[in-house]
Amino acid sequence: MDSRFLESLVKVVDTGSFAQAARVQHLTAAAISQRIRALEIELGTTLLLRNGHSTKPTEACLKLIPQAKKIINEVYSLRNNMKHNLKLAPFRLGVIPSQWSPVLPKKLHLLRESTLTARVSLSINISTALLEQISKNEIDAIVIERPQVQINDNLRCIHIRKEPLVLLHRDSESKSINDIVNTNNFIEYLPDHICTNMAKKYIHDHSLNPESICDTTSLATIKVLVNDGVGVSLVPKWPGLDGCLENMKMAEIVDTKYSREIVLITNDNGGRKELLDRLIGIFQDFNHPDLHDFMI
């Protein structure tokens, strides 16, 4: 019996549909259905009752679920125990581009020495790709914006910090944030689709009507465009922005509901607590203007 099939069964029961379970596990609904059917054949009983778009567990299924969850947890525990020999297993870390810093490799080198990890393997990618990698156990931890989708039960989501929404502009007149947004060319920041677009939410909530001239997923590109006087933009206050304003001005949105949350998501269940605590400290200190003075 494949524990992944049991996990798919639990997801269908928890979410109430094959489609939702498929989204959570990054599979197709057909693949989930095939897994459930294979379990039903192997166990010799019907597990789910399908009625249109809704799905309900049978009595046999409800009796099976607690044991299935126990098996799933034991499998994850076994996988984690196999990775506890830190001197042999590299720690695989993924970060989104806005959480990258030129000093990050040096910090990770110090982290490796202080926690006796063989090496730290670093990859930079978008949130969707990193979340898929960690769901498939292809990576050990990721630093991303908190996703607005359900994550696997075996993953831990740990708060790192909040990044407030700020307006980047070069307007020389004394105007309100809303006036600057409405009277200048607007450069729209597009976060990953699994994350909340805080700038769009702010614009909607304040009934603004900016003239959007372009959109991009790159905060670095927006910084260059605003600095060159192309337009203004509402973006999260990502690390290092304070020291890179040059010709720009920055106005912070004081309402914290428009802040984005940066989190560390890991599939480690406590076996590397010291390493994870130090890793969180690295990214929390990225709020400080002078990153080069930071030592682990």
Your description of this structure?
This protein has 296 residues and is an alpha/beta fold. The chain is built from ten helices and twelve strands. The chain folds into three domains: 80 residues, Orthogonal Bundle (Arc Repressor Mutant, subunit A); 106 residues, D-Maltodextrin-Binding Protein, domain 2; 94 residues, Periplasmic binding protein-like II (D-Maltodextrin-Binding Protein, domain 2, 3-Layer(aba) Sandwich), CATH 3.40.190. The chain has a five-stranded mixed beta sheet with strand order 4-3-5-12-6, with helices on both faces. Strands 10-7-11 form a three-stranded antiparallel beta sheet. Strand 1 and strand 2 form a beta hairpin.
Query: How many β strands by DSSP?
Result: 12
CATH hierarchy class name of the largest domain: Alpha Beta
- Beta content: 15-25%
Structural class: alpha/beta
Q: Output the CATH homologous superfamily of the largest domain.
A: Periplasmic binding protein-like II
What CATH calls the topology of the largest domain is D-Maltodextrin-Binding Protein, domain 2
Tally the structural domains: 3
What is the helix tally?
A: 10
Note the gap between the termini.
45 Å
The helix/strand series, from N terminus to C terminus, equals HHHEEHEHEHEEEHEHEHEEEH
User: Strands of the largest sheet, in order across it?
Assistant: 4-3-5-12-6
The radius of gyration is 23 Å
Unreliable sequence segments: 288-296
Mean pLDDT: 84
Shape: flat
The major sheet is characterized as:
5 strands, mixed
- Give the fraction of residues assigned to helices: 25-40%
